[in-house]
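Aim 2 progress update. The chain analyzed this quarter is reproduced below.
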Amino acid sequence: MHRIGITGSIGMGKSTVAGLFAKAGVPVWDADQAVADLYRADGAGTRALRDILPQTLFAPSGIQRDALRRAVTGDRNLLSVVENIIHPLVREHRRTFLDQFRSLGTEIVVLEVPLLFESGIENEVDTVIVVTAPAAVQQARVLRERNLSRKEFQSLLERQMPDHEKRRKADHVVFSVDLNETEQQVCRILSTLRRRNVCGN
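Predicted structure tokens:
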């Protein structure tokens, strides 16, 4: 089973690229969705953090992720505590996904992981794709689509490896500005991995 790791800084278009692989029939594991599942009302992460986090961060639906993000932005000790609890649960979630599709004889799977390099997960995949876009496009996307202030945006960037370093480490770099061109880039990568043209042209 060939494991593709998709990564890139916030707002670069990782989910769009992962979605194009899913559209082509490739199973996708999404690290952000895994965390969202853990933070649901009945999620393992919510249960593990119930006695550690302030009760104001909890809602009937589970942990309020926006409130948690703001709480850890200025408190590195709290961030470390949360990460030490959540990261092993995310690893188990990912392992379950891989075991499931390995047992099915699946040819290719995708792991969409924002902090692929920062967390060492590049050592667990066979091919690394870095998704990138111009800095102005990135910032505009983040401020338009996410409930983040400029300060929070900069704080997230500071915790991530710079885009130019990620691109240097990549097996493939996908530019996510024009959707049609992005889709063609994904098709070319899949054609290479499957050793046949999957682009329909």
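The mean pLDDT is 92. Residues 76-103 form the longest helix (28 residues). These observations will guide the mutagenesis experiments scheduled for the next reporting period.
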